[in-house]
Design a protein that fits this description.
The chain is an all-beta fold. It has strands spanning 2-7, 10-15, 19-23, 32-35, 38-43, 46-49, 58-68, 72-78, 83-89, 92-102. The termini are close together.
Length: 103
Amino acid sequence: MFAVIKTGGKQYRVAADEQITVMSLAGAAGEAVTFSDVLMVEKDGAAQIGAPFVAGASVKGEIVEQARGPKVISFKKRRRKNSKRKRGHRQDLTIVRITEVVA
C-alpha cells in the first residue's frame, strides 16, 4: 500500500516505514505530523485518485530530525567589468519517517 502526497509544493510517493526528506516543517524530533493532501492511494492493486485530493485519506509520520541540505553556490560574473557576486545557500529540510497510510 502506498500513497502520493503533496507537501512543500512537491509530490512524494510514500509507503509505511519509509523515510522522506521534505521542505522544512514545524516541530521537533519525535513529534507526529499528518499529511492530509493525499493525491492518490493504492491498495491491493486498486488505486483511488483524488480530484484533487482523496476524501478521508491521510498519511501519518514522525519527524526524525531537522536538517539542512548541501551548500549551493550562486556565482555571477560580468566579464571585463570587474564585477562579481558570490552567495551561498543551504535549504532547511525535515526528515520524516512515514508510520501509516490511512485510506
